[in-house]
Amino acid sequence: MKNFIDESLINKEKGKELPFVIIDRSFNKIVGFSKFVDLNLIHRGLEIGYTWFTPSAWSTGINCESKYLLLKYCFEGLKMIRVQFRTNHLNIRSQKAILKLGATYEGSFRNHSIRKDETYRDTLYYSITIEDWKEVKNNLEKKLNYQ
Amino acid sequence: MIPEHTNLKGKRAQIIPLQKIHLNDLLEAGRNPDIWEHLQMSVSNISEMENFINIALANKENGTEFPFVVIDQALNKIVGSTRFLDIRWNNKGLEIGSTWLNPTVWASDFNAECKYLLLKFCFEELKLIRIQFKTDNLNLRSQKAILKLGASYEGTLRNHMIRRNGTFRHSVYFSIIVEEWAEIKSSLEKKLY
Questions:
Q1: Buried b (16+ CB within 10 A) or exposed e, B90-115
Q2: What ranges do the domains of chain B cover?
Q3: Distance from the CA of B35 to the CA of which of A8, A22, A25, B156 falls in 20 to 30 A?
Q4: Which element (helix H / strand E) includes A30?
């Protein structure tokens, strides 16, 4: 874990990534992690990824709310025009979760990564654009019972 | 890794690693504003070309890119530049792009031969499994040229870049994978040779 944190912070230093911890406010405890990667300030885009949660936080809606907070920060704070999500073609759970956020599927990059077992994987690309944000925000706020 | 003595020779096109000494020849080859219309960069004088070369060589140094110059063997002249970018050795993939060529070699098979030489090098020497191309959604000529090579359209990433004029560009992505190479190679060879 020390290694994991050190690596994240080195990439933060280089300006390529921005790592976060996610806190469950009802217990005041860290329950997960997420980060901005592929940060591109010139083209105003970034990717949200490498998200994981401790099992007690699964199916609680905390993932959805943390994505809402990150997206809001990206579009309204950082003035991004594109926020990207990626997953591989075998990770059906992640694909569903990304679509449920309101992201749009854009395509599959074939032979995009090689697994430890030497098999090739396709990477699925999704995004939310600044033009989509108003509607996506509205839907997420409804889902999170903010409205 | 890619050897410094790499020298890809076709019937008319030849591709060798970019070096600082190519400055004047590249400047000469790039003297035509039509070349830069759809590209992210625009080079019109010696300091801009110096900058172009320095950035390319810095990216080569950090391992993400590998730039080349393109020679027309018929005239023994440098006519443009191309490069590998987004090099991902762990996943055996890269993108061929940032290509620009002098109009004297447009509307011929010259660029197709360049791509053939680069693809052959990628799949047969570097043993890669995926070669990617991307272009501006408004650059229909480039999209057609990429499809004509035999690459497959994979998707369009929206708001992927900001053009020099401030508008948002969608990037259209294509690829050729190692499973397709034998067939694409033979149809390119039929067309070219």
A1: ebbbbbbbbbbbbebbeeebbbbbbb
A2: 8-192
A3: B156
A4: strand A29-40
Phi (first) and psi of residue A116, to 5 degrees:
-60, -30
Picking from B152, B155, B159, the nearest residue to A130 by CB comes out as B159
d(CA B193, CA B191): 6
Taking 50 as the pLDDT cut, the residues of chain A under it are none
The string of pLDDT tens digits covering residues A110-147 is 999 999 899 999 999 999 999 999 999 999 999 998 87
Q: Which CATH superfamily is B8-192 part of?
A: Gcn5-related N-acetyltransferase (GNAT) (3.40.630.30)
Residue whose C-alpha is closest to residue B13's, from B112, B110, B122: B110
Q: Measure in Å the smallest separation between the Cα of A124 and chain B Cα atoms.
A: 10
Q: B176, B65, B37: which is closest to B115 by C-alpha? A: B176
- Its ipTM equals 0.93
Closest CA to B66 of B35, B94, B24, B38: B94
State the nearest Cα–Cα gap between A116 and chain B, in angstroms. Answer: 11
